[in-house]
Design brief:
The protein is an alpha+beta fold and 159 residues long. Helix content is 25%, strand content 41%. The protein is globular, with a radius of gyration of 17 Å. The termini are far apart.
Length: 159
């Protein structure tokens, strides 16, 4: 359980800073949904004393993150979010309560740099993620489907 995240409380939104690690996907009801992994997540409401609250968090790859463009590992991202309690684990197994950050807003790169665009089309976006992580997915028996990859390649050719 993320005790430091829990201690922040969910009564208000806070400002955070984290490092981008990589993109990924999850499968929900048979549909691929893009995600991103942030590491070294710090609460920075008090800039004089930033506090690391968790080693990593997975987020849905929402429009706010997509607008940043093609992120590079190590990019520092700033965002506002609220603490959220959820049940961790499969519904058929014993679930435990954990905490994450939800509804990120005011998302930006600390450097202010502009990055190349990412596809707005979810299918092409999943294809981009599958291409970036192909070795990992194949080594771990996760889908890396040609349909999605070809849609991303089509998007690249049109760009």
């Amino acid at each position: 359980m993320r005790k430091k995240v829990q201690q922040i409380g969910n009564q208000q939104r806070h400002r955070f800073r984290a490092k981008f690690c990589r993109l990924g996907y999850k499968v929900s009801y048979g549909h691929f949904k893009p995600t991103l992994l942030l590491t070294e997540v710090e609460l920075i409401d008090d800039m004089e004393k930033p506090q690391v609250v968790t080693s990593h968090l997975w987020f849905n790859y929402t429009t706010g993150f997509q607008r940043l463009g093609q992120l590079q590992p190590g990019d520092v991202i700033l965002f506002n979010a609220r603490v959220h309690q959820y049940r961790k684990g499969y519904f058929t197994a014993k679930q435990e309560v954990d905490y994450n950050l939800s509804h990120p807003s005011k998302v930006g790169l600390a450097s202010g740099q502009k990055r190349p665009l990412v596809p707005e089309d979810n299918v092409a976006l999943i294809g981009m993620i599958m291409m970036q992580n192909e070795d990992y997915y194949l080594a771990n028996d996760r889908p890396c489907e040609p349909f999605y990859v070809s849609r991303y390649q089509d998007w690249l050719q049109k760009g």
